[in-house]
C-alpha cells in the first residue's frame, strides 16, 4: 500500500503530514468507517476531541481513504469493555500479509514488501485490517 500524502507516526498512534502530527489516540475520537464494496474504497474518520489537552489548532476532522481495497477484515469488540473504548485508537500500523488471521499485532509504521496489511486496533479490542493500493488523508477545519 502506498501512503500518498501522509505517514503513520513512529509511535503508531497518529498521522504525520508535512510538519503536522495528528495524535489519534489522545486528541481525536474515532467516528466510524464505511466500505464501498463496488468501488473498493474504505473510509475512516476521526473527530477532534473535547479535552482541554487537545491543541486548539487541531483539525475538526481527519479522514483516511484507502483505495483499491483487496482485503478487508473486522474483529469484533470485547463485549466486556465499556462502549467508551470504541472511539479510542490503540494502534495503527502494518502487519505481514501472511498473518491474515492475526488481528492483535502490528510490525511497522510503514509498509514494506510483504507487509502491506494496514491494521487499526481500538481500546475496545475491535480491529480492522485491510490492504489496498493507496491511502491518503483529508484534514478538515484546521
Give the SSE map:
Blueprint: E1 2-3, E2 7-8, E3 14-17, E4 20-23, E5 28-36, E6 41-48, E7 61-67, E8 71-75, E9 89-95, E10 117-122, E11 127-131, E12 134-140
Task: Give a description of the structure.
By secondary structure, this protein is an all-beta fold. The chain is built from no helices and twelve strands. It has strands at residues 2-3, 7-8, 14-17, 20-23, 28-36, 41-48, 61-67, 71-75, 89-95, 117-122, 127-131, 134-140. The radius of gyration is 14 Å and the shape is globular.
> Number of DSSP helices?
0
H/E order of the elements?
EEEEEEEEEEEE
Strand order of the largest sheet: 1-12-7-6-5
How would you describe the shape?
Answer: globular
Low-confidence stretches: none
Distance from N terminus to C terminus (CA atoms, Å) equals 27 Å
Question: How many strand segments?
Answer: 12
Largest sheet: 5 strands, mixed
Q: Report Rg.
A: 14 Å
DSSP strand (E) fraction? over 45%
Coarse structural class: mainly beta
Helix content: under 10%
Mean pLDDT: 96
Amino acid at each position: 500500500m502506498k501512503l500518498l500524502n501522509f505517514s503513520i507516526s513512529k509511535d503508531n498512534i497518529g498521522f504525520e503530514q508535512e510538519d503536522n502530527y495528528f495524535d489519534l489516540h489522545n486528541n481525536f475520537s474515532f467516528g466510524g468507517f464505511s466500505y464501498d464494496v463496488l468501488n473498493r474504497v474504505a473510509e475512516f474518520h476521526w473527530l477532534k476531541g473535547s479535552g482541554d489537552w487537545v491543541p486548539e489548532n487541531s483539525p475538526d476532522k481527519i479522514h483516511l481513504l484507502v483505495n483499491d481495497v483487496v482485503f478487508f477484515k473486522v474483529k469484533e469488540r470485547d463485549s466486556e469493555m465499556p462502549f467508551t473504548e470504541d472511539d479510542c485508537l490503540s494502534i495503527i500500523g502494518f502487519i505481514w500479509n501472511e498473518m491474515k488471521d492475526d488481528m492483535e499485532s502490528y510490525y511497522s509504521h510503514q509498509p514494506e514488501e510483504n507487509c502491506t496489511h494496514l491494521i487499526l486496533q481500538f481500546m475496545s479490542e475491535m480491529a480492522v485490517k485491510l490492504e489496498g493500493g493507496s491511502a491518503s488523508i483529508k484534514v478538515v477545519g484546521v
